[in-house]
Amino acid sequence: MSDSRRERLDTPRDTRRQIVRRPTMDADAFGVFAESFARYMGTAKFLLWMTLFVAAWVAWNVLAPRELRFDSFPFIFLTLMLSLQASYAAPLILLAQNRQEQRDKVVAEQDRQANARAHADMEFLAREVASLRMSVGEVATRDFLRSELRGLLGDIEELQRQEPADETPPTPGEPAPRSAT
Asked: Coiled-coil ranges per the record (predicted)?
C-alpha cells in the first residue's frame, strides 16, 4: 500500500503557508475608489481648489513674516507635495482607465454580437421578401383578373351581337340547330 502522505506527481503542490499574512483588498472596491478619484480630479472644482491651495501656499510663504514661513522661495516643499500628489494620482487614473477599457471591451463585444444578430435577421428577411416576390409573381393579381374578365365579357357581348335575336342559345348537352342554307 502506498503512503497517503507521500506526494503524487499528478497533483499540484499545496501552497506554502506564509509566516506574515499579506493584506487582502477588495479589488473592485479599490477600483471604484480609483474611478471616483479620477472623475473628481477631472472636474473644475478640483482645479479651483488646487489653484486656491497653491496660491495660498505661495502667498503665505512670500507675504508672511520670515519666522512664520515654512517653505522659502524655490518652494521645495510645495514641489514635493505636488509631486507626491501626482505620483498617487497617475496610477489611480491609469487604474480607472483600465477598468473603463474593460467595460468598453464588454460593451463593444455586446454591440458586435447585436450587430451580427441584426445582420443575420436582415439577411433572413431579405430572403423572405425575395421568396414572397417570387410567389406573388406566380399568383394572378386583381388587376390581371379584371382585365381577363373584361376581355371575356367583351367576347361574350360580341358573340351575342353576332347571333340573331330570335334564336336562343343551345343548352349544354343539346346539339346546336342547323341553319337552313
From this structure: none
